[in-house]
Amino acid sequence: MTSPTDALVASGLTKRFAEREAVSNLSFRVPTGRAFGLLGPNGSGKTTTVRMLTGLLRPTGGTVTLFGQRLDTASADALRGRIGVQTDTNLYESLSVRDNLQIWGELYGLAPAVVRQKAGEVLEVLGLSERVDSLVGQLSKGMRQKLSVGRAVLHEPDLLFLDEPTAGLDPEASADLIDYLKEMIRTLNTTLIICTHQLHGLESLCDELGIIRQGRLVITGEVQSLLRRRWPEKRYRLSAAGDPAAVRAAITAVIGAEAEVVVTGDHCEFAVPEDEAISRVIARLVRDGLGVRAVVPQYPTIQDLYFATLNDGSPS
Ligand SMILES: Nc1ncnc2c1ncn2[C@@H]1O[C@H](COP(=O)(O)OP(=O)(O)OP(=O)(O)O)[C@@H](O)[C@H]1O
């Protein structure tokens, strides 16, 4: 069922290239104003999926619904006006950065003056202002990447598709771009679909997640729910003064002898069966004369979930 709050619904999406089924029966939904990370190894079908979601590739089976409207040849043109798609191809190499954005913005129906103003803002955010008159053919790889993102967001699309937007960007530019996207989602209620291999810190951007493996969606849902479902117990990293065997014994005396306590150097890591057990662990260590130096909660990340999910299926 499509909810009026869904910007995108994919249902049974399938793509076959000759003998190879690149995408198999993919179903997921993305609520408006949310950021959805579509993750998976090389060749798992992300780009093929995005191309079907944006109407660039006809599915072998299944449907795509954008803003409550089925995507087909009749609706594609109107719907594409509300979509921004970043790809690293088809920039006009022999034109300047300014002209590339101007042409693109006007193609999307923006008035020339609006494009000029918006292009100025976008280039400023992306750190490309000084290269506005450079020919695209003379830009570095990272600069082209930034320009392709700038072009996709120029017309303030309701639904934005980004494929590896931070690939080739230096760490500062990458962090700036993520901040910009977050701000865009917050202020314009943009819905974002992002494919990326850069998983570190992705939970600060993505609220929803789909992990695709060999063309099949292995898990999908809200990031925090998926993490809680996978790791329901709270984990802690603890450092205490004293003999590691005594520290371990004090911890297991509280959380149970069968519980796993992983000791690495002067740290140990363990899960507690319920929240308040950590207070009892600390009290026990202090009582046993084992001074507690640090107790740090461990929050599982999208990266943890990604590897755990793919490992579930190994070997393929
Ligand atoms: N036009 C095509 N003709 C034939 N096979 C294709 C075509 N496009 C993609 N494929 C195949 O479909 C599968 C999925 O490719 P796709 O590009 O969607 O993967 P991806 O997840 O985006 O990979 P990457 O992370 O490397 O970009 C691959 O096996 C690929 O070879």
TrEMBL record:
Q: Which PROSITE patterns match?
A: ABC_TRANSPORTER_1, ABC_TRANSPORTER_2
Q: What protein am I looking at? A: ABC-2 type transport system ATP-binding protein
What family is this?
Belongs to the ABC transporter superfamily.
Annotated ABC transporter domain residues:
8-239
Q: Where in the cell is it found?
A: Cell membrane
InterPro entries, alphabetized: AAA+_ATPase, ABC_transporter-like_ATP-bd, ABC_transporter-like_CS, ABC_transporter_ATP-binding, P-loop_NTPase
What molecular function terms (GO) are annotated for this protein?
Answer: ATP binding; ATP hydrolysis activity
Highest taxon of the source?
Bacteria
GO biological process terms, alphabetically, are: response to antibiotic
Q: How does it sit in the membrane?
A: Peripheral membrane protein
The species this protein was found in = Klugiella xanthotipulae
A single GO CC term for this protein reads:
plasma membrane
Q: Which UniProt keywords apply?
A: Antibiotic resistance, ATP-binding, Nucleotide-binding, Transport
